[in-house]
Design brief:
The chain has four helices and no strands. By secondary structure, it is mainly alpha-helical. One of its GO terms (biological process) is protein insertion into ER membrane.
Length: 105
């Protein structure tokens, strides 16, 4: 019996009890931050270069950033990105009210 106990492959001194992570701790999902940055870049391109498709991409990125952000985060940056993208769409249509033509045509 003692020989079987010394040849135990389970190594009881290496066994650690599982402790689940705290669910209240925020995860490391960078998607809202990346979409927020892309929204700002597309907004600036839409405003400066008068590209309507860039302005619409900025609105799309802002929606994704807002949808993926947590309720506990500060929403000022997301709101400012959203407002900038809306202003890019409005300004691009005020300067040229014609319907948007896709960039591949």
């Amino acid at each position: 019996m003692s020989n079987a106990a010394t040849n135990d492959v389970k190594r009881p001194n290496k066994i650690h009890r599982y402790k689940p992570k705290d669910s209240s701790a925020p995860g490391d999902d960078p998607t809202p931050d990346y979409m927020n940055l892309l929204g700002m870049i597309f907004s600036m391109c839409g405003l400066m270069m008068k590209l309507k498709w860039c302005a619409w991409c900025a609105v799309y990125c802002s929606f994704i950033s807002f949808a993926n952000s947590r309720a506990s985060e500060d929403t000022k940056q997301t709101l400012s990105s959203f407002m900038l993208s809306i202003s890019a769409v409005v300004m691009s249509y005020l300067q040229n009210p014609q319907p948007m033509t896709p960039p591949w045509q």
